[in-house]
Amino acid sequence: HLWFGISGQKRIWIEQEDFLPILVHNLEPWFDKFTIYVDGFTRYEDYNFMPVEGSKLNPVLQDIEVFNSIQCKLSNFLNVSIVNLIGQTYRKKIQYCKRVDFFIANAGAGQIVPHRFCRKSGILHSNQKHCIFRTGINNKTVKLVDRILVKDIGNIFDDAVKPSQDVRPGFISYSIEPEVVVSMTKKMLKLK
Question: Are 144 and 106 in contact (CB under 8 A)?
Answer without folding.
Answer: no
